[in-house]
User: Which sequence fits this backbone?
């Protein structure tokens, strides 16, 4: 997903930087429409990863509770699960951070294209 998002960003930045001024308004609208579709897909991806991150954090908290609340017999298994959920939660937080910042950057690029099409729009 990271590679696909980065490729999309690079394509749009290239279009804005070198093609947008010379492109017809119709082509610019087509590029904008396709970009808005991709933004919607990326927003969905971001939402799914937020939910997954939230649940892994809940599982981590539950395992921490089990680690300290249960007796010695379950301590090894609970400790192992705590470490696994901690690592996965951290990984998902970093991935979600990337998704969030990339989608926000896409919003700014979309606004830039929209302003080019209609300078009277206050975006």
Assistant:
């Amino acid at each position: 997903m990271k590679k696909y998002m980065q490729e999309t960003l690079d394509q749009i930045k290239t279009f804005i930087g070198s093609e947008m001024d010379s492109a017809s308004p119709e082509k610019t609208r087509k590029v904008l429409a396709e970009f808005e579709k991709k933004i919607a897909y990326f927003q969905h991806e971001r939402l799914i990863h937020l939910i997954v991150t939230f649940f892994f954090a809940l599982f981590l908290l539950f395992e921490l509770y089990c680690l300290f609340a249960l007796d010695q017999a379950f301590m090894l298994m609970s400790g192992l699960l705590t470490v696994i959920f901690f690592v996965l939660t951290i990984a998902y937080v970093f991935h979600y951070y990337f998704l969030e910042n990339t989608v926000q950057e896409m919003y700014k690029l979309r606004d830039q294209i929209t302003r080019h099409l209609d300078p009277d729009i206050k975006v």
Observations:
- The mean pLDDT is 89.
- Residues 115 and 122 are 8 Å apart (CA to CA).
